[in-house]
Write a structure and sequence with these properties.
Blueprint lengths: L2 H6 L2 E18 L5 E9 L2 E8 L14 E9 L4 E8 L2 H5 L15 H13 L3 H11 L5 H6 L13 H20 L5 H12 L17 H5 L6 H4 L1 H10 L1 H13 L13 H22 L7 E5 L2 E5 L9
Parallel strand pairs: 3-5
Antiparallel strand pairs: 1-2, 1-4, 2-3, 4-5, 6-7
Helix pairs in contact: 4-10, 6-7, 6-12, 7-11, 10-11, 11-12
InterPro entries: HD/PDEase_dom, HDIG_dom, Unchr_helicase_relaxase_TraI
Protein name: HD/PDEase domain-containing protein
C-alpha cells in the first residue's frame, strides 16, 4: 500500500504553521515513493510531517533550526501530510508569539522551559518581549542555552542547569524588588526579571549545543561574553527603551560576584540580581552536599563546607 493512500484515508483537517526544523530523513512507502519525514518543533512540542517529494519538491536548501512555514492536512495518526514546505519569511517569523518557535524538544528540564515561555509571554512590555526573542532565539545560541549546565563542577551542574539557575535568579530578584520597593513601576520589575534571566547568558559561548565545555570555556570568563550575547537585542532597546538598555548593561557588568568589570552598583536592581545569583548557587550546592547524607551536621562539597543543625522531632514539623 502506498504511504500517500494510507494517509489519504486518515485526513481530518487542514493546518498551516511556522516552526523550527529540528529533524529530517528520507523514507519510502511500499511503492518506493520518496517522502521527506520532518520534525517540526516549537515551544509546545513536536510534530511529525511527511512531504511527498514526487509532488512537492523542497524548493530551496533549508538548514537545521531554520524557521519553516508549512501547510497541509493533519492525520488521525498525529502526523501531517504536507503540500507546502518552504523557508518562513520575516513577516511570518515576526508574527509568532514571544519564544513561540523555541524548540521544547531540546530542553532536558521541560518544567523550567514551560515556565520560561509562560513568563516571557506575560511581559507587558512589547520591547522587552522583542529583546528576549532577539537574544534567546538566535539560531546559533538557543541549543546551548537550553542544554548547558549552570557550571561545570559547581552549582546546577547538570544538563538544563543554566536555564534552571537563570529562572531562579530572575524570580528571586523580582521577589526581593517587590518586597523592598512595592511601588516600583511594572517596567522596572520586568527589566529586573530579564536582567536576572540573562545574567549568565555568556555561558552559551562557553558550552556547545550539547552542553559540553568548548575552547572558550578554558580561555575566557563567561562574563566577557554577556554583552556580546545580548548585542543584537540591546541595539533594538537602544532605539526604543534606551534607559532600560543601559540598566541591563549596568546590572550585568557590576552585579555578578565573579565579574571582572569592577563597576560599583548604582541601583538596587544590581544588588538584587547579585544576591539572588549567590543564593541560588549556594542553595543548590547545599542540597548536593547533603544528598547522600541523612544525618545533620557538617558536609563538604569541593572546597565548600556546609552545616545543617540537628533539630528535635517537635521543631522539625
Amino acid at each position: 500500500m502506498k504511504l500517500s493512500n494510507h494517509y489519504s484515508r486518515q485526513l481530518t483537517r487542514s493546518f498551516t504553521g511556522t516552526y523550527r526544523l529540528t529533524g529530517r530523513v528520507v523514507v519510502f512507502d511500499d511503492a518506493k515513493t520518496p517522502f521527506l519525514k520532518l520534525r517540526l518543533s516549537d515551544c509546545e512540542g513536536d510534530h511529525v510531517a511527511m512531504l511527498n517529494l514526487e509532488k512537492t519538491p523542497v524548493p530551496e536548501r533549508i538548514g537545521h533550526l531554520e524557521h519553516v512555514t508549512t501547510a497541509g492536512v493533519k492525520c488521525l495518526s498525529g502526523q501531517f501530510l504536507l503540500n507546502e514546505f518552504r523557508k518562513a519569511n520575516p513577516e511570518e517569523v515576526d508574527a509568532l508569539a514571544t519564544l513561540q518557535s523555541l524548540p521544547r524538544v531540546y530542553c532536558p528540564v521541560p518544567e523550567a522551559f514551560d515556565q520560561l515561555v509562560a513568563i516571557a509571554q506575560s511581559l507587558t512590555s512589547h520591547h522587552l518581549r522583542t529583546f528576549l526573542t532577539r537574544v534567546l532565539e538566535r539560531q546559533e545560541r538557543l541549543e546551548a542555552f537550553l542544554n548547558a549546565p549552570g557550571s561545570r563542577n559547581y552549582h546546577h551542574a547538570y544538563p538544563g542547569g543554566l536555564l534552571q539557575h537563570s529562572l531562579e535568579v530572575a524570580n528571586h530578584s523580582v521577589a526581593m524588588l517587590r518586597l523592598n520597593e512595592p511601588t516600583i513601576p511594572r517596567m522596572m520589575q520586568e527589566a529586573c526579571f530579564v536582567g536576572g534571566l540573562l545574567h549568565d547568558i555568556g555561558k552559551t559561548y562557553t558550552y556547545d549545543s550539547k552542553g559540553k565545555p568548548n575552547a572558550a570555556w578554558k580561555l575566557c570568563s563567561h562574563d566577557v561574553f554577556t554583552l556580546e550575547a545580548c548585542a543584537y537585542g540591546l541595539a533594538y532597546l537602544d532605539a526604543h527603551e534606551p534607559d532600560i538598555a543601559m540598566t541591563l548593561r549596568h546590572v550585568w557588568t557590576c552585579a555578578s560576584p565573579g565579574a571582572r568589570y569592577g563597576q560599583p552598583a548604582a541601583m538596587t536592581l544590581a544588588r538584587y540580581i547579585r544576591d539572588a545569583d549567590g543564593q541560588s548557587a549556594m542553595a543548590d550546592n547545599q542540597q548536593r552536599a547533603f544528598r547522600r547524607q541523612s544525618s545533620k551536621g557538617f558536609s563538604r562539597l569541593g572546597q565548600n563546607l556546609f552545616w545543617q543543625p540537628q533539630l528535635t522531632a517537635s521543631a522539625s514539623h
